[in-house]
Prior knowledge:
By secondary structure, this protein is mainly beta. It is built from 2 helices and 24 strands.
Amino acid sequence: MTTSEFRYAANPADAKTYDTQKLRDEFLIEPVFREDEIKLTYSMYDRYIVGGAMPVKKDLVLETIPYLKSEHFLDRREMGVINVGATGTVTVDGVAYTLDKKEALYISKESKEVIFSASGEGQPLFYINSAPAHQKFQTKKIGKNEAEVIHLGDNKSANKRILNKLIVNSIVETCQLQMGLTELVEGNIWNTMPAHTHERRMEAYFYFDLDEGHSVCHFMGQPQETRHIFMQNHQAVLSPEWSIHSGAGTSNYSFIWGMAGENLDYGDMDVCPPNEMR
């Protein structure tokens, strides 16, 4: 079963007036996973879709959703999938791709049938991002050993982390979708600091590997008008082009960043020094 919900885009002048519940209603996506369901959130930020597939007792077939007005989900879109659970399988037009935890699959425009399956040993959790696409490329699996790995930060600043670029244009051809996975080293809590915006692209963050009882405080908003949302394991948050996207946890954790927009330049960002934020 495929279910969906819809989110309008927010004006930053309006967003700075939101109280806690309104911020959560507009930007937080919870839950991402529901048993035996493909759950999707369609956002008006670059028409980006965020969701999850959790096959427990049966295989899950990706169905189109009302907002797309298309026969198949991927008629005019591309999709990225990253498994954050036990080993599972994604079958695309009859070709099966086995994904271990933290492995990715890029699914091309015009793919007709996508099926998410458990492999029998443990529970796979398929995190999904999708964006409009103007061209058909090749469906491709990206294992962790194929990622572009960057080591960032240091223990002194509590932000030592390992960034794994998975679905990026230097590894797989895409129209606009990019996804990667960042792992905080034990004893480190800060991500994406110094914070930045990129007005030509929006972004979504998904937090995981966060132990029960712990939280991540996700910071958002314009650099001089910041807000925060406390988040738990397996929750996602939308980040508009005008917003920073940074966080600090009560322990180390991992997160997936996904983005779409006008370009594929990973370095296209406007950095805001920490002492200039408000």
